[in-house]
Amino acid sequence: MLVFGAVVLAAAAAWAAVSWLVTNWWALILLAAAAVVGAAGWAHWRQQQRAWDRARQQALRFGLPELDALHHRALILVAARKVLVSTACGALRGASVGWQEQSWL
To answer: How far apart are CA 102 and CA 104, in angstroms?
Structure first.
């Protein structure tokens, strides 16, 4: 009996919503336009996020000539810095700041 009442209530709500939308058809157009604008904004945001992710990944990579030119101590610092950046460990990231100014490079 309770299920039947819920079905009747849902059907009445659907009928009222459809009747209101038939009378106020402009509201449906506004909702559709808002959905299109929202979807376009989300797609643009997602595309920008992917572009920034690619740029971050490119910044973390060294080519073979750059790696060969580095001293072995610098290679260790670069590897540690990559780990810290990739794990977003902001508190420890400051330890590798200034490694480029070391005299042994």
So the answer is: 6
